[in-house]
């Protein structure tokens, strides 16, 4: 990043950060420092070799004297009277690898850091609370964020400089100036750091207004989607393009409520474009994290568990709405990829696969035309290039090819001979290449998202391998990451570490609610309730409503309602509370869900597209959401199995985002089921809305009529703001 760009970015915030502006505006020529009077540093070693984080272990042999985040590092900074150099990234981050190679493996940079700073490495996926706080600061300083993230701060964690990736020459210039300022202008540095902390403490609030919570939110969100939609390529906005899963799921909900054809058209165009593009792995299944271009053609090749959980779930929903087999194919291929390459033998789901192999981004996935000719016969090559955008000149760097379907191609042609056999040959060849790094840590939060998608995959396909995967992952987390009513975030190589943060609770509860509605084993929903109670006690803001992201106050405490790459945990929390309110007949849960939405009413009204997950919950509360209790006779329940199969087949073939389903015998203790007798010893259905139930029925057709009733978006609340 150039000095001119840094100056421009920082000058936009000169009133907030006067010291930083003056520091960065200084000419970037290297200031020579005399080290003759510097006291000898006693630390002298890199401390990361005993860590389990794959990201930290990547840096264990750097000449930089890294610490992991912890009291030891902060004590050293105080004793040595040095500022802290904080570097945050993750194991499959391409630019993190670049900065490591250019700077952290470099003796000149390492020597300077070791003399003048205490250096701390943080894996953002293991400690997202730390990452989020300092990312908020960096975004405020520079107008953007990303990884690797670089923050310079005092020993009491107060930042006074921040940025993202810097090349080596810039790193040295910045560090030199900061070291000079620390030695010669300490009072100004510490004053600036305190002002930064105070500023962010004062901006971390939302305003509520009950009157603004109405169907206008959904109308405006749809209007904004139509305005932002890329009609040519699908998706929203320009490059780079990230898969907009939660936004598409909201459009499917709006389409169901109002039958808006454009809401469905936007969703289908985007889903098809992503599936046809290079962002989708046509040989092995699964999606890369984002597309570097507007056409979804060239991916940033890393594969993240959370993306593949959210996208497979979205494609399954789209299949239920449209019955288009393309969406089912993409969803199952993605789930199969996770089962094949991202699942531990103990059942937990791994976190990610790197973009790089052998130090080159995309090398595992890209193909030269020469290699394809050598592997395939003339007819096979012709068949392949008939549907894929492959050529002698290539569509990727260095004349290589990334597989993407031509717009004229029929998706189904991939799964029939000869293409199926050709693709399998190429897949087997690719499997012999050096694979990208597998980040094999198990994160509670992302596992919760994948449990949800695997359970949904079972409901849609009836394939028990998906149900088994969801059950195995849930059991793994319960056995390893839940201890004495305390939830932990990360498991790797036998080590459990880090207190869970909000999204660990929320995403896991979401997965358990989905899993219960797939196998109706009450241990899942009871565990979900226990987790919800712990979440309420640790994170709920009694004063203003909503959930804090972490239980600790680092330099300020974050509470967020916006969607990012992952669904906003407050939005999912509201959905969880609604479902648990239904299952346990607890109106207080639903009231708390309403409070979450009300807490951010003014921001939500101004920019509803930024709060898609929160609007999922509003959609549920404003629709004719149903609680369905399916009761079978307590005598000889086995005789009911065939009847239940038919019932679930009917229910699970429909898109029912606002329906909760419970099933058990007449003797069941779950509040939604308790005390509801069967009629004539037949399987009996109770359909309720907010605790008020229709007359019970044994007629499956009548059941489906009741659950399919919706409440259209209110015309009297649709005036644009």
Quick take:
By secondary structure, the protein is of the alpha+beta class.
Describe the model.
Helix 18 runs parallel beside helix 20 and helix 22 packs antiparallel against helix 23. Among the domains are: 200 residues, Glutaredoxin (3-Layer(aba) Sandwich), CATH 3.40.30.10; 68 residues, no CATH class; 82 residues, Glutaredoxin (3-Layer(aba) Sandwich). The N terminus is likely disordered. It has 721 residues and is of the alpha+beta class. The longest helix is centred in the middle third of the chain and has 18 residues. It is built from 27 helices and 20 strands. A five-stranded mixed sheet has the order 1-3-2-4-5, with helices on both faces. Strand 10 and strand 11 form a beta hairpin.
User: What is the percent of helical residues?
Assistant: 40-55%
Mean pLDDT: 91
Give the quaternary arrangement of the chains.
single chain
Major sheet attributes: 5 strands, mixed
Shape: globular
CATH architecture term of the domain at 3-202: 3-Layer(aba) Sandwich
For this structure, what is the CATH homologous superfamily of the domain at 3-202?
Answer: Glutaredoxin
CA radius of gyration is 27 Å
Properties at a glance:
721 residues; alpha+beta; Glutaredoxin; five-stranded mixed beta sheet; four-stranded antiparallel beta sheet; 27 helices; 48% helix
Would you spell out the secondary-structure blueprint of this structure?
Layout: H1 3-11, H2 18-25, H3 54-58, E1 66-68, H4 71-80, E2 84-89, H5 94-104, H6 107-116, E3 118-123, H7 128-142, E4 149-153, E5 159-163, H8 168-184, H9 186-202, H10 216-228, H11 245-258, H12 261-276, E6 290-291, E7 299-300, E8 303-304, H13 305-322, H14 325-341, E9 352-353, E10 356-357, E11 360-361, H15 369-375, H16 378-387, H17 419-431, E12 438-439, E13 442-443, H18 444-461, H19 464-480, E14 482-483, E15 486-492, E16 495-499, H20 502-519, H21 522-539, H22 569-584, H23 587-599, H24 601-606, H25 612-622, E17 626-632, H26 641-652, E18 659-665, E19 684-689, E20 692-693, H27 700-707
Helix pairs in contact: 1-2, 6-8, 11-12, 11-13, 11-25, 13-14, 13-18, 18-19, 18-20, 19-20, 20-21, 20-22, 21-22, 22-23, 22-25, 23-25
